[in-house]
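Attaching the record inline, Q. Sequence:
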Amino acid sequence: MKVQITFQPKLKDDENWQVNLHSFYNIIQVLFIELNILEEILGKSKHLENAITQIKILKKALRDPQQTFSTLGELANFKSYIFSEIDRAVMDAGDISTSKLDILENSLINFDRIVKITETRTKEFLNLITHKDEWVNFNIEALEDNLKEFFLTMAMRSKDKYGISFDLKTKQPNDYYIYIEMPEGQEYLSLPALFPDVIRDLSANAKKYSLPGSTISCQLISLQDSIRFIIRDQGRGIPEEELTEVVKFGIRGSNVTKDETFGDGFGLTKAYLITHDQNGKMWIDSVLGEYTEITIEIPSQPYKSQFDY
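Structure, as predicted:
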């Protein structure tokens, strides 16, 4: 069943800020998981506890706008402290069995990669949040590359539980096949500043609620007078009577509320807020146990921003 979302969003200031920081909350959850894995390998350590405490401080700071900007501005110091504490925990652990060394190495690689993503996302956020009401000229090839990197990073975090394939010819049975369609024949596309964040959030949802082996389709289409984004999965689906509810702040489908996930139910909310602010339209089409397809269409605007991205 396909429905258009039409309710008037009304969020409190703190709820609106949480929606803006949605992607950061997800990354922080991943950092917690990686530190817990390190603790399982290395054993209890005051240094790992220090690292975990520092991440908790970061998470708390992100709930306040003023603290957020000052805290993210000091991210280099945060990174240096976390890695120094991890190094000390590794040195204190002494001899580590061969079987655990591979797990340790992979976990450290994952942690490093996630921290680098945090750095990239921080630069993006600090730059774009000040231009959040503007449209930005995005490089289309970079948009596609960043989306592919996003899916590959999720696969790395899975500890080989599944893979990611962008080519059906090389897809393995346990791989997600990711079909990505971008506008052709142009180098740049003007979009709302935070729209790439929407693409990532909805892509994460599509993967989260689909089983390995599924196909996820992401299409960004430039029309004459509008921009359309369509994402379709082969996942759980959404109960028909809840299609207009799952867009509201903190609401998830009743068929997934017991699942342990990184999200807080803000992804669809952010997508609709940005769509609504741009005088656009949003539809959700879903069949329980088969698929969910989300379509966003916003009127296109001429390039107005002072910078390209």
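The mean pLDDT is 86. Strands lie at 2-5, 135-139, 163-165, 175-181, 188-192, 215-222, 226-233, 281-287, 291-299.

More tomorrow.
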